[in-house]
Amino acid sequence: MIKADPRLPRYQQIRDDIAARIARGEWKAGEAIATEAELSSIYGVAIGTIRRAIDELASDGVIERAHGRGMFVRRADFSTSLFRFFRLGSSGERSISPDSRILSRSLATPSDIVRDRLRLGPEDNAIRMIRLRTDGGKVLLREEIWLSATLFGPILDMDIAMLTPLLYPAYERHFGRIVARAKERLTVETADANVACDLEAPAGSSVVRIERQAIDHADHPLEWRTSHGLADQFVYEVDVH
Amino acid sequence: MIKADPRLPRYQQIRDDIAARIARGEWKAGEAIATEAELSSIYGVAIGTIRRAIDELASDGVIERAHGRGMFVRRADFSTSLFRFFRLGSSGERSISPDSRILSRSLATPSDIVRDRLRLGPEDNAIRMIRLRTDGGKVLLREEIWLSATLFGPILDMDIAMLTPLLYPAYERHFGRIVARAKERLTVETADANVACDLEAPAGSSVVRIERQAIDHADHPLEWRTSHGLADQFVYEVDVH
DNA sequence: GAGTGGTCTAGACCACTTG
DNA sequence: AAGTGGTCTAGACCACTCC
Fold first, then answer.
1. Where is each HTH gntR-type domain found (chains A, B) (predicted)?
2. Rounded distance between C-alpha atoms, residue A226 and residue B152, angstroms
3. Rounded distance, CA A178 to CA A168, Å?
4. Structural domain of A122
5. Given an 8 Å threshold on Cβ–Cβ distance, is B241 in contact with A185?
6. Which CATH number characterizes residue B56's domain?
7. What's the confidence (pLDDT) of residue A138?
8. Does pLDDT of A7 surpass 80?
């Protein structure tokens, strides 16, 4: 049933197993998962241990609890957590449908910064992707994405449709790697030639730069991403705890 | 011992009581608080209930746990949570000492936006403060801060030294109101005359605008704040969950 | 009323830190 | 060895939802 490191606490093993089942599609978005009592007998632990596991999944936004009704898989659109740029325009209400287009995907030698952020060894290789996020044909964001080739190597040969529109669900589904949290760093700068070209704006335009390190439950970095978007139409919303 | 709403779960009453004790100075920053077993007998509840209360204080960053040593009041500098703008400069390492200067403090009629964000009634009054955050004489941030006059009225007559350098600890100490989380929204715009003047920059400079709604445990908004800083030296770091 | 999640108990045993 | 927080148990009872 569980093949995780037995040195980890049971509630963490169970948390990861439930997350993996959801990623494998055993429980689908919007559906109710097994009840606490069922899970308790499935895993052979007390109900309190199950609750502890679910607590973390709920705070990760993977599962939603409804008192008296059950526990439900959240639609995996990440709208409340790790995708929340560009509510766009003054209306402020409409949420973006995250169309994305991967421009390139290749094995590459990581810079020292990328090596540090992904915690790669001196010999490790990396995967580099350039991706555009668009809405209604308009380019909103240009992203440079770095992954460890050791962890995500097969991504180079996968059908591109398996990587759209969102990458984090793809990491879960195909590699069992769950992004639990991320560190982000925002600055404002002027666009260089590559960024300006992809954003369809003049070089030297004012752009927002977002660096994001995506991290799993074990505190290991999964992805390093640098995104750029035009400053004058940029909105960034976040809940700070 | 506890005078909170008895309809609330015990662990929430205990959480708030412990937080209030810390705010009153019964346990000081860096000190160990009572052990779980002691708290359990103080409050007359099982140790699991104490743990539940402490869980929330720990995730709020009020208390830090150390396995085998005890539980400690975190230094209340908010450096890891709600004050983390402007790590400033390319060094990226030095953290800012948050000098602050309150320029004005008065009763004012809130706009509809402020009324909405503070959830004020149509007749309620508000307090408006303008504050500068500086480092080494240089102005980094210009803040416009709004509070409910009903909740924070006495702040108008307090010695200004009681409100520096940080406001959130002052809210805790003098009003027992704890900021549990905040919603922030960042945009980039050009400075108007007031902002440019306070930031000692030409009007029309590119500035970052941060709107922040600070919220307590009961999900009630405590403060609405709009901050501006020069875009070219702005760094914003956040942990996203 | 049956079934669900939410709170709370009163322990047990383990892992870590300090003397 | 003593004391601390961390994990886990096997229940009890409550609050909410749905039939």
1. 8-76
2. 42
3. 7
4. 99-233
5. no
6. 1.10.10.10
7. 85
8. no
